[in-house]
Amino acid sequence: MKLKTLLLGAAAAFALAPAAHAERGTDGEVKLTFPQAVSIMNPYLTGGTKDIYAASMVLEPLAGLTPEGVLIPKLVTEIPTKENGGISEDMTSITWKLLPDLKWSDGTAVTADDAVFTWQYCTDPAGGCSQATKYEGVASVEAVDASTIKVTFSGPKANPYTAFVSALAPLLQKKQFEACLGAAAPTCTDANNMPVGTGPFMVTGFTVNDTVQMAANPNYRDPAKPAFATAVIKGGGDAEGSARAVMETGEFDYAWNTQIPPETQESMKAAGKGEFVVAFGTLVERIEMNTTDPDPALPEGERATAKHPHPILSDIKVRTALSKAIDRSILVEVGYGAGGKPTCNVIPGPEGWASDNEGCIAQDMEGAKALLDEAGWKDSDGDGIRDKDGKKLHILYQTTVNPIRQDFQALIKDWWTELGVDVELKAIDPGVFFGGDPGSPDTFQKFYADVEMYANNSESPDPESYLGQYQCKNAPSPETQWQGENINRFCTPEYDALYATLATTTDIAARQEIAKKLNDMVTKDSMIVVPLVHRGTLSAHSNSLGGVQINAWDSEMWNAADWFRVK
Amino acid sequence: MLTFTLRRLLLAIPILLVISLVIFLLVDLAPGSPMAEIPLTVPPDVRQKMIEALGADQPVFVRYLLWLKQFFWIEPMTLYDGWFGTSIVEGQQRILSWQSRSPVFTIIGQRLPQTLIVVGTAYLVGIMIALPIGIYSAYRQYSFFDQVGTLFAMIGFSVPTFFSGTLLIIIFAVWLGWFPTKYDTMLEVTDWQSFLQQVKQMALPVMTLGLANAATISRYMRSSMLDNMTMDYVRTARAKGMDEKVVVLRHVLRNSLIPVVTVIALGIPSIFGGAIITENLFGVNGIGAALIGAIHANDLPMVQTLAFIFAVLIVLFNLIADILYGLLDPRIRYD
After folding, report:
1. What is the CATH number for B272?
2. Where exactly are the transmembrane stretches of this chain (chain B) (predicted)?
3. Chain A contact for B39, CB < 8 A?
């Protein structure tokens, strides 16, 4: 019943809208398809990219990011900086000014109180907010007046653009979510599925894990936008089916995350109905080296901990040899096509932050063999496997169950076998591998293997928190219930010291230099992390959908207000 | 017959309780975590808070008892409240999906229509194709028609739906462009045009599933007919000078249908269970797609509830098949 009244209201609003604004809603319907269906429209209660992207068409942050990784104002007049006085001299506070006459889609005014509420909502300890890191270090958020939001940090904050920035931390309407604080958060089904926002669209219908129906927001701040009257996100199926619906049958305008094999990409392009677009963020498929000994003979509690250094991989020569034997270009060609490029960096972008480290791209089998010889690993009994002190050069190489990863495993096993390494492969269900259950021996944090392969990325262009993973204190161990992001148990005082300076450096150029050095320390200087492929998100859009600018730093739908029908 | 039915129904209660416990433990002890799909950029302490907010950190038996209470008391009462406008269980925690934070039964309610329409139609279409094929194949055993029918059944048996479905998509959607590949669950049939659209979007999934269903049932029908064709009463009927049509369609068919009806009845729970692969392939997003999505996301309340509902349906339709058997075959009496 409620839905119907809402729909009627929307329809009524529409009937009036064209008279005032000639362009809004003139291009009909835009149809999107996601291979994973949308579960919830509240980004604070989900970690799923699908949900966050869908919600970004409705909910907006104060500031967003462009495809170049540059901040742009969304609900505010300008980006606060030290120069314009928006950021205090001591870097402990940032002040945002809301746009005048800003309205929620229900017609009520957006005020600073909504921002204060959003902060309270996400920091309530019982709420289980998944974007809590966005508000980390925030001491208070206050409404100076109805349109001025002051965020105070508990100390100087080098990167103050976290709270209320990007699709991960949008503004919620206080009126709608007031009763949903803390433990009540998950029970507010209606609010979570149909949030009131400021974005170009508003939700008119929602079925869990299936379809999101949206209509143009009659109160959107630009009276001429969006060009589309309605939008639909249909979820489900697989990447290939989604890509086909855009590229071959033309049923949909946009398909997010169409990661399909390179040869299928080519054949779909041939149909000529659409094109693939790639956004390169910081997602890097990598092999992580274990610096601790995962030998099952060791007692539980000591196995794979810093107590026992790895018998083979502690030698940097072995690690370097393993990296040199890999031909990253072939991996890209087999696995990703246009959706990937070879890389030697943990931080592959954005430009300015990425180190110019390219030494690993060319495969060097002879060099790798020479290094192993040097390290004392020689094939003394002629069985094709190198050994040293009576111990075979044996490596257990694990990853998740995933067709591309199994291809990579097979290729890399071939190269390493040529090198004289005995490689044992293992593939683990992703739910278990990434599940983090301390009772399971197969989680990536426990790392009961010699090397493991997966992908990880920095959630923002500024990689401070991402680089923080490799500090000594973040190593998973029995004491931390096997939680922690430093899964290699990499630990050097130099890295920790340099990282500490990053947190206090505010000059961008200096920050970039430090980030590059930190990147080099874990990659080419130590070969603790062996990056393989810089992965992009491959999406597809039809030729008739204009205005698409794919974005790796914010939601891919960040500029959905500007999308239009090519006529 | 009545006492038999009552006895079976009463016996079903402990059976279902044991099943529910087994399912709960199986799902719970299986490795995996609801946090597995959360990006690695979310730090461990935030993950821990999210798990606590879901209630997933509670001991297994606490969650099991809570689930029992929710399933057998709160959910039926919520339905009752909804019908009669009372508020007996208002504000009490319903079974919430971990993935979407929506009540599991609301999701099932949204999804059941798609599944019943698409999978149910496919089942009906399957039966309607299978029965004539089975009957005629048996009547003209080893004829050309029988050989073709056998070939058809073998294809239906052995070709998996993910292959036949994709093949149909490529032929009918990509090359010919007749049918859409994605099912629009929001389509409301209000006039001829939307009805036509509904038929079009159902065509491919129904064809895919219908083929598989028809294969099984046509084989049962054929062999059951063959068993009966050689019976004495058939020879007697023919000797009495009865019309072939009467012999086959009245005498033989009626007797042959008994086992086939059982097979069909036992297959009905699978309609409610949906078709995991086909639903996913065509974006029908029914119960099957919900189940596999929940399994991927380690959404335990959803998996547990769905699996238990399937168990209830299977127990129920086994009973119905037994009763039908008794009704169709006067020789079978349970008392």
Report:
1. 1.10.3720.10
2. 9-27, 116-139, 151-178, 202-221, 257-277, 306-328
3. yes
Q: How many domains does chain B have?
A: 2
Assess whether B94 and B121 both reside in one domain: no
Q: Are A51 and A40 in contact (CB under 8 A)?
A: yes
Q: Return all residues near B190 (Cβ < 8 A) that are at least 6 apart.
A: none
The answer to whether B91 contacts chain A (CB < 8 Å) is: no
End-to-end CA distance of chain A: 37
Q: Which are the contacts of B189, defined by CB distance < 8 A and separation ≥ 6?
A: B195, B198
Which residue segment(s) compose the domain that B118 sits in? 106-297
State the complex-level ipTM.
0.81
Does residue A18 have a cis bond before it (omega within 30 degrees)?
no
- Please return the burial class of B330, using the count of CB atoms within 10 Å of its CB with bins 0-12, 13-18 and 19+: exposed
Model pTM?
Answer: 0.85
Are residues A186 and B96 in contact, defined by beta-carbon separation less than 8 angstroms? yes
- B39, A47: Cβ pair inside 8 Å? yes
pLDDT of residue B334: 67
Using the 8-state DSSP alphabet, how is residue A299 labeled? Answer: P
B70–chain A Cβ distance below 8 A for any pair: no
CATH number (3.40.50.150, 3.40.50.2020, 3.40.980.10, 3.40.190.10) of A3-12+21-273+543-565 reads 3.40.190.10
Q: In whole angstroms, give the CA distance from residue B226 to residue B229.
A: 5
Interatomic CA distance for residues B80 and B78, integer angstroms? 5
Residue of A nearest to B94 (CA): A187
Amino acid at A277: V
Last residue of a domain, one of B82, B102, B122: B102
Q: Compute and round to an integer the Cα radius of gyration of chain B.
A: 24
Cis peptide before A80 (omega within 30 of 0): no
Asked if B182 and A252 come within 8 Å (Cβ–Cβ), the reply is: yes
CA of residue B106 relative to chain centroid, distance = 19
Q: Which residues lie below 8 Å from residue A484, measured CB to CB, with a gap of 6+?
A: A445, A474, A475, A476, A477, B44
pLDDT digits (tens, 9 = 90+) for A55-66: 999 999 999 999
C-alpha B44/C-alpha A410 separation (Å) is 32
**B267, burial (CB in 10 Å: exposed 0-12, middle 13-18, buried 19+):** middle
Per-residue pLDDT at B335: 61
Say which of A39, A205, A208 has its CB closest to residue B186: A205
pLDDT digits (tens, 9 = 90+) for B134-185: 999 998 889 999 999 999 889 888 988 889 889 999 999 888 889 988 888 8
CB contact, 8 Å: A211 with chain B? yes
Distance of CA A538 to CAs A5, A54, A259, B94, B274, Å?
39, 17, 6, 39, 31
Tokens of B260: 């086939």
If phi > 0 it is left, if psi is from -120 to 50 it is alpha, else beta; for residue A459 that is: alpha
B118 and B198 belong to one structural domain: yes
Cα–Cα dist B137/B153, whole Å = 11
B50 touches chain A (CB under 8 A): yes
Is B263 within the bounds of a domain? yes
- Topology of domain A283-455+528-535 in CATH is Dipeptide-binding Protein; domain 3 (3.10.105)
